Amino acid sequence: MNNGTNNFQNFIGISSLQKTLRNALIPTETTQQFIVKNGIIKEDELRGENRQILKDIMDDYYRGFISETLSSIDDIDWTSLFEKMEIQLKNGDNKDTLIKEQAEKRKAIYKKFANDDRFKNMFSAKLISDILPEFVIHNNNYSASEKEEKTQVIKLFSRFATSFKDYFKNRANCFSADDISSSSCHRIVNDNAEIFFSNALVYRRIVKNLSNDDINKISGDMKDSLKEMSLEEIYSYEKYGEFITQEGISFYNDICGKVNSFMNLYCQKNKENKNLYKLRKLHKQILCIADTSYEVPYKFESDEEVYQSVNGFLDNISSKHIVERLRKIGDNYNGYNLDKIYIVSKFYESVSQKTYRDWETINTALEIHYNNILPGNGKSKADKVKKAVKNDLQKSITEINELVSNYKLCPDDNIKAETYIHEISHILNNFEAQELKYNPEIHLVESELKASELKNVLDIIMNAFHWCSVFMTEELVDKDNNFYAELEEIYDEIYPVISLYNLVRNYVTQKPYSTKKIKLNFGIPTLADGWSKSKEYSNNAIILMRDNLYYLGIFNAKNKPDKKIIEGNTSENKGDYKKMIYNLLPGPNKMIPWVFLSSKKGVETYKPSAYILEGYKQNKHLKSSKDFDITFCHDLIDYFKNCIAIHPEWKNFGFEFSDTSTYEDISGFYREVELQGYKIDWTYISEKDIELLQEKGQLYLFQIYNKDFSKKSTGNDNLHTMYLKNLFSEENLKDIVLKLNGEAEIFFRKSSIKNPIIHKKGSILVNRTYEAEEKDQFGNIQIVRKTIPENIYQELYKYFNDKSDKELSDEATKLKNVVGHHEAATNIVKDYRYTYDKYFLHMPITINFKANKTSFINDRILQYIAKEKDLHVIGIDRGERNLIYVSVIDTCGNIVEQKSFNIVNGYDYQIKLKQQEGARQIARKEWKEIGRIKEIKEGYLSLVIHEISKMVIKYNAIIAMEDLSYGFKKGRFKVERQVYQKFETMLINKLNYLVFKDISITENGGLLKGYQLTYIPEKLKNVGHQCGCIFYVPAAYTSKIDPTTGFVNIFKFKDLTVDAKREFIKKI
Fold this sequence. Notes:
Elements: E1 17-27, H1 29-37, H2 40-71, H3 79-91, H4 95-114, H5 125-137, H6 144-157, H7 165-173, H8 184-209, H9 212-221, H10 231-234, H11 246-270, H12 303-319, H13 322-331, E2 342-344, H14 348-356, H15 361-373, H16 378-391, E3 394-396, H17 397-406, H18 419-428, H19 448-469, H20 481-494, H21 497-508, E4 518-520, H22 536-539, E5 541-546, E6 549-555, H23 563-567, E7 577-584, H24 588-598, H25 600-606, H26 610-617, H27 630-646, H28 666-676, E8 678-685, H29 687-695, E9 699-705, H30 719-726, H31 730-734, E10 738-740, E11 745-749, E12 758-759, E13 764-766, E14 769-775, E15 781-787, H32 790-800, H33 810-815, E16 821-823, E17 828-829, E18 838-847, H34 857-867, E19 872-877, E20 885-890, E21 895-900, E22 903-904, E23 907-908, H35 909-926, H36 934-955, E24 957-963, H37 980-992, E25 1026-1027, E26 1030-1034, H38 1058-1067
Helix pairs in contact: 2-6, 3-4, 4-8, 5-6, 12-21, 13-18, 13-20, 15-16, 18-19, 19-20, 19-21, 24-25, 36-37
Pfam family, one: Cpf1_PI-like
InterPro entries: Cas12a, Cas12a_PI, Cas12a_REC1, Cas12a_REC2, RuvC_1
Protein name: Type V CRISPR-associated protein Cpf1
């Protein structure tokens, strides 16, 4: 081990990354007065209140567009899709061909959407400003008063559409040609086409088995409903295009329902199995609202709304006899064709536990099965088995029974998988979907009894929904239509319980305060979009400094400051504010050609020659072009250099370019411009001018604030403060590492606690922890702070404040003399920060501005490991005895250091989290206010990760930790103590740019020279076996490795019978 000075020094400045600095804003007294006077917050609050109304209008538009477009489709040949389905169903080996056909059909539908001239503007601000006004005016479904109301809402947002970026992205997915369930293309080609295909086969069976008279009777009874179509046409492949709109779907489902009614009577009369003739209903079109379906509200504002929504849901369930129909399915569990009822793979564990009382029975059966039938041996075979199990998306109940029986994995042969169908009878028990009584005198947030009443009802329905989900396969397989036709209808009807349950629970368990923030625009849609001097009066925001404090200035959009004052002075006088002059040349590869070659003003000003203009149009400067000419490329670069030297703003950057002859193509020149095209300067504005601008209401002034700027602050600055200060530090500006970005956002959080809980002056405050002596893992005595259980704390609090006549419990008596307590010197308000209005600023920055965006960190680490001699491995594990445990070993396998992180900084987090977990479980069960554990977890993990990060540099170490996506067992640890996955995410983020606050900012590991030892994956579950210096091993191995031989027990013998074990040994 070395001293760590030179470890990982080649992992500094290798890739750029983005961060957002979050700070509070404190308005000056004058600014706050003008904010109120000018109605700044009211205007944006109004937008917040009407945001959902605008979304509803846009959804109405999207819904109409989908219907209009789909109605016009008449040139897609659906027959080819269903023919591929026939082959797949018959042979089972046509999946790739079917997938390709489905993709082509989705693309064909998407093309219909995209070819409409309106489509390109449907997911941007133009939808609000250009399309919706006309849509509302000509929409006959809106009344005159509704048109007026909706028009006003659209006007309110006409210039403020940027906050809908995520919404537009989600809605664009509704039209996507990709294989995603939220797309209408997917709904048509994948979901409903499979149901239509299945029904076509059922109708053929009906025609084959019924007489012509019976068929004619069905048609005759439905003559008025058929709309001049025959039943044969309705169930023919060629007519599928008639049933892709919501109107067509409703018509089709109505016909299916009437055919089902006839066939039910027919089967009763003729004693036939009605399962053979059951037709399924198509799913509703994406975004469409079926007339009879229950819709979950956006949010609840009152108890009355909660009861109206829940009772509406229960009424829908009751009117459609959902409970009775589910019970009927459960009671008939032996009457279905078990070859054609499927268990979806993601539910194997839960079904296995309910049926066989073991989580792994079904998965074990699959592993043994594929191990027996697949060729190969060793790791290659193991990988094949793992892949086969992963790709096994569902198994029929018959198949599961056979697998479990063949491999003797259940000691009782009478236990069968179909008993899980009967499980719904136990879930529903004596439940009836009856209306819940609303009492306006009892508030849900304050009544545990009323909250429990709601929860108990929704719990039962939620459990029923989860039961339905077990059987809902999306694969094209031959299904028992009698089972699935009924199940899918029920599933669609109770699906809203997910959103409803979450909304009700969140409403009932809400905190006495609100963390909701609204974005403030100060009357300008581009507020703080950028900081460039040329954009100050467009974006209305500037940054100021004085006395080492930082300020945000916002211009009054209707009464802007005098430009001469904002221009400032070049010399500084006492008391002046420094105003940032932000210079940026953004996207040089586009901006430079536009300014000097393409724009009319640029051509007139810089007068490019015909030679330059013609060569540029012919792409002679691009190395990828067949007409690439290095001489012309150099001539163009020289032209650009000359233009930059006389540009009124860009000449101030002081560019230092390479000799033109050294550039191999234009990209090298653009890269040099990009790296030098950022500069911060300062000008000075007098205190008097700033105060005058405030008094005139022309400038809103805020201090950028966090606790580090408090006069009482004595500790080290937090990282966000350090980043903020060093954006403008001499060390950073000399060689840019930190760059201030545009698109800053200002938020406002309204005070929400009107009647705060106050610990009054003179009352006794009781500590929640106490000190105790305890031996560490090596037998040394240490002082540890332990948490007092909540019930004991309440006892002691009442005791010290003379609020209880009861005698103390034994445990409280033991603690009363060791628990610290003192008299409150002043009134202390609980959750004080929510008792007043508060402003916030979010400022994006770039770290390692000059580096590339990607760094191939995994390859770099592997190369580093191959070359390094003095390397260590930090093994990280977690278990029931340790929240997180670390072992450091050298390359010879010697243990260098071991450490349990149950206790950090003298605080016993294991006990604290265990106690908090128990309290939260009770709160969840009874829908009580849930205690804060997130902050405790993050505080604990932050301390642990800091210690591990120091070890990484100190020991020149890589990290080995459990891969929770591989073989992780459910129920293995208590939920709230299982902090490992959160730890993994936070560790990756920390090591992505590792900084130590106690190191000089210009030294390795300092703020401007952070180590980059990981990358940030798009999804944690897709990270694979390596994330930079972190390597993952299967979770099962970390506790099953023999320390002497290294043997790993990967076999699951626990539940195998003696015969099965003998068979296994024979194969070795």
